[in-house]
Amino acid sequence: MPYKIVLTTVGTAGDLRLFVALALRLRSAGHSVRACSYDLYRPWFEAHGIDFVALGAPVTDRQIRDTAWRPQERGREPGRGTR
């Protein structure tokens, strides 16, 4: 029985590639797939014929990279204080 599946990601381009691959695999298995992410990534999904819906305010790739969690730069893990 095919499912209607919505994939949501707000990560970096590296995360996005995994979601495109997952969407393609799900679609090849007969499921209906829609992706939701930053509008910046719309071309990645639409190039593969994957239905897309933009989430949130417009952002640039630079803004995404600048806000990404980098433990080696910050010296702590999410949800924990500094050591």
How would you portray this structure in words?
The protein is of the alpha/beta class and 83 residues long. It has one domain (4-65). 39% of the residues lie in helices and 18% in strands. It is built from four helices and three strands, in the order βαβαβαα. Strands 1-2-3 form a three-stranded parallel beta sheet. The longest helix has 16 residues, at 13-28. The model has no long low-confidence stretch (mean pLDDT 82).
Please provide a brief summary of the model:
With 83 residues, the chain is α/β, with parallel strands linked by helices. It is built from 4 helices and 3 strands.
Topology (elements, then pairings):
Elements: E1 4-8, H1 13-28, E2 32-37, H2 42-46, E3 51-54, H3 61-67, H4 71-74
Parallel strand pairs: 1-2, 2-3
Radius of gyration: 15 Å
Secondary structural class: alpha/beta
| DSSP helix fraction | 25-40%
Q: Tell me the overall shape.
A: elongated
First-to-last CA distance: 51 Å
Low-confidence stretches: none
Relative strand content: 15-25%
What's the helix-strand series? EHEHEHH
Mean pLDDT: 82
In total, the number of strands is 3
Summarize the biggest pleated sheet.
3 strands, parallel
Number of helices: 4
Biggest sheet strand line-up: 1-2-3
List the domain count as a whole number: 1
